[in-house]
Design a protein that fits this description.
This protein has 240 residues and is mostly helical. It has one domain. It is built from 8 helices and no strands. The two termini are 24 Å apart.
Amino acid sequence: MRIPGWLAWLRPARSVPVTRWRSPGRWSPRPASLVVLLVGLWTFGTGEAMLVRSGLGVSPWTVLAQGLSVVLPMNIGAATFLVSAGVLLLWIPLRERPGLGTVANALVIAVALQVGVTVLPQPGHWPGQLAFVLGGIALVGLGSGLYLTTDLGPGPRDGWMTGVHQRTGWPVARVRLGIEISVLTLGWLLGGTVGLGTVLFAVLIGPAVAQGLAIARVLGAVPGGPEPDTSQDEFPELDA
């Protein structure tokens, strides 16, 4: 059933929509593209910070950054940037092409995460901790929806995942699962926090990103253009 245009944001997207702020090239952003990119990445990093401050567990890649911050003389923001830089090196044998969004992803999320961890309060009770987890996942989903629609290049982790998929032919879902289990295990062994928040992130991040893309689809609709037809949303690339 087709829903009214003004309720289109309620229908989760299953592909990256074309928006009015979409960049014409990975290294040639429009002003609007750059603004949306930075807002999206900062929102993403703030969501990750909320997960950290919840104390209930974080996303797999942040578990790794936390673990590195335990064993190395650096804060979690610097560790996040170090992880991103390391993953970018893994792009080389895969012949992946970075974009401005790739570089900004590594820098802005690391800074936003560290700022958030520094300024956000730590909930003192379980309901507040759970609220931080759910709010953090929602912000990561919204931030992803915004930055992905700028078309300025994937983040280091997503680019590595899709590169492995393209070079090996392995299903995206299996590649992602294998990478995240490996990263989670290593981070936990180094001292990162694994808990309820980690489980909830794994279960809810897919729907959260789909909802973030739906919001971006509505906010970025071309004025005077046709209303998006969500009745035939059949895009398997986001099913993983």
